[in-house]
Amino acid sequence: MNNPSQTLSDRLLALPSLKTVINAFGLDARKSLGQHFLLDTRITDKIARYAGDLRDFNVIEIGPGPGGLTRSLLAAGCRHLVVVEKDDRCLAALAQIKEIAGDRMEIIHGDAMEFDPVASVPAPRKIIANLPYNVGTPLLVRWLGMVAEQGNSAFDSLTLMFQKEVAERIVAEPGNKDFGRLAVLCQWLCECRYDFELPPGAFSPPPKVSSAVVTLSPRKEKLVDVSQDALEMVMAKAFGQRRKMLRSALKGLAVPADVLLEKSGIDGSKRAEQLDVMTLCKLAQVYEKIRR
Q: CA-CA distance, 195 to 43, in Å (whole number)?
């Protein structure tokens, strides 16, 4: 029974430790699900802080596992929390938290790749998650598609943990070896901030690589008015063979490379990584206009 004189934070603190929960419910992390659990509440609290003030937001968490970050998000005062968990072994552990949180928390048993957060959760929304490594990038691209369609009404922000190399690709600047298709797609739609890094030892079990948290805040308007399909198609060619000059890299598109470059005002001897995000987006915009 909950003590009515206790705050939600007090009741969450009274829950068994995450290690105890993992042992009690047999929640050994599974490689097939990309699971690496965060057990340090100082880190999960830090992620919640980097996501900003949560009190007026409905928050979506993907892959909560035993519920470490879940506890921190509730303690941070989010209006409502929806957790999406594929692993049925974790449901009983999450139910313990819901018993305390009551109507402020909803558990959805399902695959995040099939879950539509915009259709399922009222605005304003934030996504905050330690994403499973094996689906992190596909999930991000899917959510960016929602931002492309609905602008910043889709999400106020996305505070997400990835492998460090993926996080670096999201925030990379032109001329950097990590600058490529993912950076262009993310920065076309969002202001992207690199928050902090975590060593492998912060997780159970420790992954082989470091991790990092990034926050993407959707812009009021796209940098350039172009469709995601056109942008991804042109960027796939532009960055497909990084050492090639654009006049060679862009061959195979439905528009001749020399025509596309001339109308875009871009020097064909340049490589894609030498151009800024705005220029690359305008290249895709010209491609789309010519094809119409």
A: 12
Which amino acid is present at 43?
Answer: I
Q: Which two tokens stand for residue 182?
A: 């993912």
How large is the greatest C-alpha to C-alpha distance in the chain, in angstroms? 72
pLDDT in tens, 134-165: 899 999 999 999 999 999 999 999 999 999 99
Mean pLDDT, rounded, for 46-74: 96
Q: pTM higher than 0.85 for the full model?
A: yes
β-pairing verdict for 157-163 and 125-130: parallel
Closest CA to 217 of 197, 236, 195, 232: 195
Quick: pLDDT tens for 154-194.
999 999 999 999 999 999 999 999 999 999 999 999 999 99
Domains of the chain: 8-218 (3.40.50.150), 228-291 (1.10.8.100)
Question: In this structure, what DSSP letter does residue 17 have?
Answer: P
Q: What is the pLDDT of residues 120-136, one digit of tens each?
A: 999 999 999 999 888 99
Residue 59 carries which side chain, given as an amino acid letter? V
DSSP class of 177: T
CA angle 222, 224, 228 (to 5 degrees): 75
Judged against a pLDDT cut of 80, whether residue 229 lies above it is answered with: yes
Place of tokens 């001329």: 175
Spatial CB neighbours of 243, under 8 Å, sequence gap ≥ 6: 271
How far apart are alpha carbons 64 and 71 in whole angstroms? 10
pLDDT for the residue numbered 4: 55
The continuous run of DSSP H or E covering 138 comes out as helix 136-150
For 147, the enclosing helix (H) or strand (E) is helix 136-150
* Cα dihedral 199/139/60/13 (nearest 10): -20
- What is the spatial distance between Cα 221 and Cα 151, in angstroms, rounded to a whole number? 7
pLDDT of residue 1: 45
